[in-house]
Predict the structure.
Amino acid sequence: MKNNKYDKSKYCFHYSGESIAYNYAVVNGVLKEAMNTTDEDYNFKEFKYFIEVYFNLSMDYADLEKLVDDFLENERKNSVMRFAKEVKKLYVLNDPEFIKNFVFIFGHRALSLKKANDMIEMMFKKINEFHCSK
């Protein structure tokens, strides 16, 4: 990425009748490029960690709220602050398709656009509650 800024048009994925393998390769390449940016505001490393470690395949979507609480209570303060910043950025970007694809690539789990949107809204709310209670 030349300017290390989020270009929404580059990260919107529209699936046509092309093969799943091709779509996976395109999505994976774009997300990996986003993850490798040097701009800390756009690499979502803590969010990726949460998806891979806390919201892994052994966990159910119904457990998500408790998993966010566990993360906020148990991770280092710096990690929680970065996670909060990344969730806020995702919330403001308001791009559930990006979140859906991010979770698919790094969490190997399919979410509907509604669930992806609900997920970020709930995380944003939880983080605000957490910071207000401290």
